[in-house]
Amino acid sequence: MIEIRYGSQVCGELTSAASREWLVPDGLGGFAMGTVGGLRTRRYHGLLVVPGATPASRTVGLASLDPAVLLPSGARVRLGAHEWVSGDVDPRGFELLERFDLADGLPRWRWRVGDVVIERELAMLPGRSCVAVVHRLVSGPPVELELAAAGTWRDAHGERRGDGPPLRMDPVDRGAVIEGAYRLSGPGWSPQGHWWRGVYHREEAARGLHPDEDLWYAGQFRDTLHRPGDTLSVLAWATDLEQEPPPGPQVVAAARHRNRQVVAAARPADAVEATLALAADAFVVRTATGPDVVAGYPWFGAWSRDTMISYEGLFLRTGRADLGRELLRSYAATLSEGMLANTADTGRVEYNTVDGTLWFLHAVSRHVTVTGDTDLGDELLPALRAVVDAHVAGTRYGIAVDPADGLLTCGAPGAALTWMDARVYGVPVTPRHGKPVEVNALWINGVAGIAELAELAGQDADELHRLHDRAVKAFRDRFPTPAGWLHDVVDAPAPAYPLGGAAHHDDDLLRPNQLLAWSLPFAPMEPDAGALGHLGAGLLTPLGPRSLSPDCPGFLGRHRGGPAERDTAYHQGTVWPWLIGPYADAVRRAGLPVDDLFTGLEAHLSEYGLGSVSETADGTAPHTATGCPFQAWSVAELLRVRR
């Protein structure tokens, strides 16, 4: 894997140290997460964030475990870091960090206090909501080490205040059970029990959200490290509270071994691919209903569109075809009226995308093509044919094949059905009603893929071919623009008319959605070097394509501010790294070189979400990363398209 290591120049400078984040997942949707400098900058940061009934319903437990070294001189040196609503940062342990590195995906810190060097490693127990934090004396005389445990028990998306009741602490051997929900265990436990008030989260402030909370100081662990190599380990875990996990060093060693196996199973071609293979592992989780995909950390749950776009990269490029098969069968069971369920972060099952189902068709087709698993194709073929029939007949939200040209149309008042689905105060920013370009590319690709599966099963596919050929002809007639690229939407309601009005127009804004018209396996058009030249000039950045060209009206180059400001800019110029996949596919199919396309994203692996790829970035230079630091489809598409 690539080396991710920082010295005191990064670790000791707060802005640099606090803007680089690490993630250790538990395989269930929970995680430990924080920054290089140890400062909690988000409400989501914590050492034990516990998964709930759905991947998005997480609860924050142990927030921090702050070390303090008691030197032979009697001096007490604190190594933690907190920011307070007063503006103070205290303590400032990051100033004593001489190194941080990510080794086999696990964070490791090293503090130097004169001749005393203390190292911390952290890991989660795969498949269990359990974190082990191991401290080791690397060099120096005997010292005492204290670890102050501060936590809470609240929804990961919210805050908890000290004006409510104190957290319940039940004493147990070597520690305590907090709120009956999670347990702390380690040597020299001394309970405390009071609030730390006014903890400040600078990233939440920047996102226009409530930036502060209160933490419950539960108590401290304490032990003497007599000689180099001695350790002090603390465990925190939820569920099965009576079943104590293995010792901390054993948890770390097991996690390191597992991560190496994950990388080896992916058979990476180089260090970057190895890093991406391990990054992909974070998003593949086990839930009560089977395997699923977390769309992004720290705040997203499972979304069918994200899952299906990510499918090939997360499952087929990492040696998880058997698990992927299970996932596809599970998702197929949610089909209703020809539409795939969109499992929302709210926990409700909704049917509200036009493209999620079409990406599912693509994922099934790619699974069979890559693995040769025709048994799955045969099993799902009736359901896939039913999807086509439902789209031809018409289904929810005005989604239907237009009998006049064979293209797929969609739209309903207040709906945002494509991946550009941001709303501000309930109003879609980019509604894209009519016939969106990528939706029709996916439709054509999906029908062709099903026809291929039908023929492999020995079934008649003539009607599917006729449907496909008609749509391809209409696509080639309707979507090219005089400017040299493709329309983003054709037959869109004219701005002066309500949805369903008589007047229509064709939207020729320069957006990246048209890339799918050239990049998909059964794309409706052959790549055109001239069109790709326009897209490259107007959209391409070091972190991938923008969602709108700066030359177009409505372009917003900064994805910043409060929720309304960020959602307004979400698809109006913001960079989306996942689009590097279709961009590179189109360029490659045009016979042009692609290697230089990935340089910026490869460098990005050590800039924001360490070892991973962010959800978004600003559309204007320096294209600072935004959104989730760890995003499934960003990782999956880079991993897929590099090979």
Summarize the structure.
Helices cover 30% and strands 27% of the residues. With 643 residues, the protein is α+β, with helices and mostly antiparallel strands.
Keywords summarizing the entry:
alpha+beta, eight-stranded antiparallel sheet, 27% strand, elongated
Describe the structure.
The protein is an alpha+beta fold. Helix content is 30%, strand content 27%. It has a nine-stranded antiparallel beta sheet with strand order 1-9-10-11-12-19-16-15-14. A hairpin with a 3-residue loop joins strand 15 and strand 16. Helix 8 packs antiparallel against helix 9, helix 9 crosses helix 10 and helix 10 packs antiparallel against helix 11. The longest helix has 20 residues. The chain starts with a strand and ends with a helix. The model has no long low-confidence stretch (mean pLDDT 96).
How far apart the termini lie comes to: 16 Å
Judged by helices, strands and strand pairing, the structural class is alpha+beta
Biggest sheet: strands, sense, closure?
9 strands, antiparallel
Strand order across the largest sheet: 1-9-10-11-12-19-16-15-14
Annotation, overall tally of beta strands = 36
Parts with pLDDT < 50 across at least 5 consecutive residues? none
Q: What integer is the average pLDDT?
A: 96
Strand content is 25-35%
Shape: elongated
- Put simply, the count of helices is 17
Using only C-alpha atoms, the radius of gyration works out to 26 Å
Q: What is the helix content?
A: 25-40%
